[in-house]
Design a protein that fits this description.
heterodimer; A: 477 residues; alpha+beta; six-stranded mixed β-sheet; 10 helices; 24 strands; 23% helix; 39% strand; B: 443 residues; six-stranded antiparallel β-sheet; 20 strands; 40% strand
């Protein structure tokens, strides 16, 4: 494959490209789906292809092909240059590639237990055991669990990225993921639903560690008791403690997305939208001094793991909010040039036929010093929101809504009864500014972040510790 | 091997190695996309792909695959692997043999006209769109143009055999008159004749101009006038969640609602892939069954879920030709028009809100239909039958069935909608909905 990639880079130069980048990508997926305890289908996918991206007279062209031959590669290069050339008449500033620490390295995440060492029977058996466990939990909580969807994926992604200015990196990363959707039912109380993902860049050993039967038992039991026991939550101004799952989605939606430099420049305006931040927002206070939010692709085992991005730039931890102040944006080489900084390696793509764009990896609130008990002890009257189901945020990333699923009343520093669907509908700065204490229990959740056109759902972790907000309005308007 | 020979070759292999049922579909895609923002092109893309989807059953045991096009030797390897996977897969609860062909497909549905991927023509569409919005006062214009030609070769072990061409043009455009004042519009078409990118640009520009200097909206319950883009998002929910697979998975507010009132009597929803010369026109589903017109909701009553042969057997009905081998899906949604003009609908609202676009629709509970979504681009207060002033920062927070039941009026004019937020092409009118709940962030 390396010779085809080099051929493409050379040809792009001959055709007048000022910059060229070629990527081979192979994604091999195995997936099993269990619906209501019954196997739906076993799926095997193998998508391999090649793409080339060029800058031709400040115009960016991209072409992909699923045919891995020298002829198809030459055709892709010609198409990339052709579409870039055709667009030169509708340019103003155009595109230039900025600086970045380009790599020349091979990265391989080795699975301790390889996927092909685990037969399909064992995987299905595990899911069935998990499904049974969830049903038993609902029964114990005196509800029913009439609808369950469990999907277990293992995916191995191989990439080779070469650029005309010297990057040459390759990687092999295995990933495992569980997607779970549960519906509990009671004739009097109706239904409650829970959706969550687990995911790691690792082999089958990660799945073994998850202990799925136990986890799904806990999830189904908790969902059942939320349905049966939860009371109407208090509303009005009060203290709220967010669990790690909620802190994680807040970091992703209300810090990571706003910090994407392509949004700041308006490049995603017609699809995923823009951001309330401006190019000159570095140094802007958006939260209290205990707020430190980072995005770190280099976390071992993380779902969003990588050591080099799709432009061949070496990855590093990015500090997005430091002590409550906007500290850094997420850049690829294109935005790095416009902002006159170095790329911080945020260029990612989900497949051979997708353009690399600015993405998060693993975005989280850095832990503080508080135990969960200490955070709760400091609340006279409030609510603890452990997890959520519904959420959304406007396309400037300023007005958001998180609706709790498992949530508890806090009275005089103690967790009390469950409350139903507390609503946090607040502004980004209002939320970050209300945080007065951050816990020390950092936890992560897996997610697929959607962005781009065509859409690219990319693996990420979102995370944080338990986090306390003071005097925030609960209940929306 | 020629590509039209690949599906029958795969089916033959599957049967030879022991499958009771085999479907092989080869998709050949040629697509150009031009993305633009700040009145300039930011990326131009060319995609050429050939993929093969294979689905096999050994009675109740199933396996499926999506692969790039491979050599005959590699295809043999994949088919053998799928057979092995199917053999060791636990049985599903239902086995329905694939619908028996051969079938007759409408010739006009099989070979609609192809769109040109000529770059000069496509760049001109982008220019026309930007100019259209700018003429109306837009300072910044962003969007994407997608031109696609597609060929699908399908073969099944039950003697369905077909080749379909399809083509499409999509323009999605967003115009800005300030960071918080914008308008959005779309034009989608199956042929160049019906494609109106400049008009889409003008509509987006006009909305952006009207949306200048918005003030924070007041939360509360309002009569809402929804543009076709917003209503299409809601109609997509109704269409997608009528899939029998999602009903079975507990992921739909339409569960146990066949024969029940799920919308106002003014609302009729049809999935009609046989509607010629439209974006979602198609001749057959993924089991090779000739596509058909299905009335999902008639005068407010839910008439059918969407089925493939497996879900149909489970629900004891006939397939609606909406396979999706695992998950049935709508192809081309059509809402029957109402009788009023936009102006007549507007003039009937004393105190309301006009929403021109929305995004980020999420459910608290799919089964109940409790959800919220965020209006974006122009949002306007309506007072005494007239658009009064632009507002911002509101969220629709309600129940999807309640919204459909509260339809007061639908317009005569309709627009085809498909864009980033609306995945199924949908022909929808404007809609007036009583009593929609709007909320706003508080801190």
């Amino acid at each position: 494959m390396e010779d085809i990639i080099q051929l493409a880079i050379d040809l792009a130069g001959k055709l007048g490209a000022d910059y060229a980048e070629a990527r081979f990508q192979s994604d091999v997926l195995e997936s099993i789906v269990l619906k209501n305890g019954v196997s739906e289908v076993s799926v095997f996918g193998e998508l391999k292809g090649f793409n080339v991206r060029v800058v031709f007279k400040h115009s960016l062209g991209f072409a992909s092909t699923s045919t891995l031959t020298r002829r198809a590669a030459r055709d892709a290069v010609k198409r990339a240059v052709k579409v870039a050339r055709a667009s030169t008449g509708v340019l103003k500033k155009g595109v230039q590639m900025g600086e970045g620490r380009l790599g020349d390295e091979k990265v391989e995440v080795k699975a301790r237990v390889k996927f092909d060492c685990v037969d399909l029977d064992s995987k299905v058996l595990l899911l069935k055991e998990t499904d049974t466990s969830a049903k038993e939990a609902a029964m114990e909580a005196k509800t029913k669990l009439p609808a369950r969807m469990l999907t277990l994926d293992n995916l191995t992604t191989e990439r080779i990225v070469v650029t005309s200015d010297g990057a040459c990196v390759s990687s092999v990363v295995p990933r495992v993921a569980l997607n779970s959707f549960l519906t509990v039912y009671d004739p009097q109380k109706g239904t409650a639903q829970r959706h969550f993902n687990l995911g790691e860049s690792a082999g089958w050993e990660a799945v073994e560690k998850w202990n799925l039967p136990r986890l799904l038992w806990e999830e189904a039991y908790s969902l059942s008791t939320s349905l049966m026991e939860a009371r109407t939550p208090p509303t009005g101004e009060m203290d709220v403690v967010l669990g790690p799952e909620v802190a994680g989605i807040v970091c992703h939606e209300s810090c990571g997305h706003p910090a994407e430099a392509d949004r700041i420049l308006g490049r995603e305006a017609a699809q995923a939208g823009e951001t309330y931040l401006k190019a000159d927002s570095l140094g802007l206070r958006v939260g209290s001094s205990v707020v430190n939010v980072v995005d770190d692709p280099t976390l071992p085992r993380s779902f969003g793991f990588y050591l080099y991005d799709e432009e061949g730039v070496k990855a590093r931890k990015r500090v997005l909010i430091k002590e409550g102040v906007i500290h850094e944006f997420l850049h690829n080489r294109e935005t790095a040039h416009q902002f006159e900084v170095e790329s911080n390696a945020s260029s990612r793509s989900t497949a051979y036929n997708r353009e690399p764009i600015i993405r998060m990896a693993n975005t989280f609130l850095e832990p503080g010093d508080y135990s969960k008990e200490e955070l709760i002890e400091g609340v006279k009257h409030g609510v603890y929101i452990k997890n959520f189901m519904e959420w959304n945020i406007d396309d400037r990333r300023f007005n958001q809504r998180y609706v709790g699923l498992e949530a508890y009343l806090i009275e005089k520093g103690k967790l009390m009864e469950k409350v139903r669907n507390p609503v946090l509908e607040v502004t980004t700065i209002g939320l970050w500014s209300a945080i007065d204490a951050v816990g020390k229990n950092l936890n992560f959740q897996a997610a697929y972040c959607g962005k781009g056109d065509p859409m690219q759902g990319i693996p990420v972790w979102t995370g944080g510790p338990n986090t306390r907000l003071r005097k925030i309005r609960l209940g929306g308007t | 091997m020629k590509q039209e020979e690949i599906p029958p070759y795969v089916v033959g292999l599957g049967v030879k190695y022991g499958a009771t049922d085999v479907v092989a579909k080869l998709v050949e895609l040629d697509r150009t996309m031009i993305r633009f923002s700040n009145n300039e092109v930011t990326a131009s893309k060319s995609f050429r792909e050939r993929t093969v989807n294979i689905f096999m059953m050994i009675k109740k045991q199933r396996a499926g695959s999506t692969i790039g096009v491979l050599s005959s030797k590699a295809l043999q390897r994949v088919v053998k692997k799928l057979i092995k996977m199917a053999k060791i897969s636990p049985p599903a609860d239902i086995y329905a043999t694939l619908p028996r062909g051969p079938f007759h497909y409408g010739p006009s549905l099989l070979k609609p006209s192809q769109v040109s991927l000529d770059l000069n023509k496509l760049i001109n569409y982008v220019r026309e769109t930007i100019n259209g919005a700018s003429e109306l006062g837009a300072l910044r214009v962003a969007g994407s143009l997608i031109a696609t030609n597609l060929r699908i070769f399908l073969e099944t072990s039950s003697e369905a055999s077909a080749m379909q061409r399809s083509s499409s043009l999509e323009m999605s455009v967003r115009a800005f008159t300030s960071d918080v004042a914008s308008g959005h519009s779309v034009s989608i078409a199956q042929s160049e004749r019906e494609f109106q990118p400049a008009q889409a640009g003008r509509l987006a520009g006009e909305t952006a101009k009207m949306a200048k200097n918005p003030r924070p909206g007041e939360p509360g319950k309002y009569t809402a006038l929804l543009s076709p883009i917003v209503f299409a998002d809601f109609v997509n929910q109704m269409g997608l969640l009528s899939s029998a697979f999602l009903i079975d998975a507990g992921s739909s507010f339409l569960t146990d609602k066949i024969g029940s009132e799920v919308a106002s009597k003014k609302f009729t929803l049809i999935d009609d892939p046989t509607l010629g010369d439209t974006y979602g026109t198609r001749a057959f589903d993924d089991e090779g069954v000739p596509a058909k017109r299905n009335v999902i909701v008639q005068n407010g009553t839910l008439k059918t879920y969407l089925h493939n042969s497996t879900t149909a057997k489970k629900f004891n009905v006939k397939t609606t030709a909406n396979a999706g081998l695992i998950v049935p899906s709508p192809w081309n949604l059509v809402v029957e028009p109402g009788g009023k003009t936009f102006e007549e609908m507007l003039s009937g609202i004393d105190d309301g809100i006009y929403v021109t676009n929305d995004w980020y629709l999420r459910y608290q509970n799919y089964r109940r239909g409790d959800f919220s979504t965020i209006p974006r681009d122009g949002i306007f207060r309506i007072k005494n039958g007239q658009i009064n002033s632009p507002v911002r920062d509101l969220r629709i927070n309600d129940n999807i069935l309640r919204i459909f039941k509260n339809i007061r009026d639908l317009s005569r004019s309709r627009l085809w909608v498909k864009w980033w937020e609306v995945s199924i092409p949908t022909l929808t009118p404007y809609a007036v909905i009583e009593d929609i709940n709007f909320t706003r962030s508080t801190t």
